[in-house]
Design goal:
229 residues, six-stranded mixed beta sheet, 14 strands
């Protein structure tokens, strides 16, 4: 599976090249023109997208979904995050460390509200959107947090993060996400998905990508560290 990652300052957007191009996440609010320019640099117009699949409904990942919806691109979201999308408001989030607490004042907390084309309850085959893969709602980071499994890729959203300073340093090192009510549960979800699907690479909302084998070992260590606290 061919893919590209666009780093939009505070979060990643991933482009998957299936039978049709598909975006995973839409980036933070105010970044639609930048994202469209990135696509055009690859000779892709927004109308050619098979879908925009949101890993969850937080502002840094769903911030430009309304613009894609207006352009007629199907937008997919886990049903548990419908209240976030239709209100255009982030919920409060639980910080997992000092860095997360320092970042809170700089996070986008609102974005243009939208109604997704499809609200996914459990899982959805993505063939009709031009991608041989599946979207699965797993919860955790948010009620509607979802992952995408396509070919040798696992797109894990914000269940885990890569590296330090938003992935600026050691981007391929798995770490607990900045915000989570139950980081051990989120990490166990990722571990179970790796064991089930055996991806080669894991693409993330922040930092990454991760090598699946190294990430699996590192996740066990992180879970053990949380258990000892």
């Amino acid at each position: 599976m061919r893919w590209s990652t666009f780093n939009l300052r505070i979060s990643n957007v991933h482009l998957l090249r299936g039978r049709r191009p598909v975006l995973i996440d839409s980036g933070p609010p105010g970044r639609f023109d930048s994202l469209r320019a990135r696509l055009r640099a690859l000779s892709i117009e927004t109308k050619e997208l098979g879908a925009v699949i949101l890993t969850h409904g937080h502002a840094d990942h769903a911030g430009t979904a309304a613009e894609f919806d207006r352009e007629g691109v199907p937008v997919l979201l886990g049903a548990g995050d419908l209240p976030l999308a239709t209100s255009g408001q982030n919920p409060d989030v639980h910080s997992t460390g000092l860095t997360a607490r320092l970042l809170r004042p700089f996070l986008p907390w609102s974005y243009p509200a939208f109604s997704p084309t499809t609200a996914v309850e459990t899982s959805l085959d993505l063939a009709s959107f031009g991608l041989d893969g599946v979207m699965r709602v797993v919860g955790g980071h948010s009620l509607g947090s979802s992952v995408v499994i396509a070919d040798d890729l696992l797109l894990a959203g914000d269940l885990v993060r890569g590296g330090y300073l938003g992935g600026t340093l050691l981007s391929g090192r798995a770490r607990i996400h900045y915000y989570s009510d139950d980081p051990a549960s989120d990490l166990k979800t990722v571990a179970a998905l790796i064991d089930e699907y055996h991806p080669t690479s894991i693409l993330l909302g922040h930092g990454g990508p991760l090598s699946s084998d190294a990430a699996r070992r590192r996740i066990d260590s992180l879970i053990e560290g949380l258990r000892r606290k």
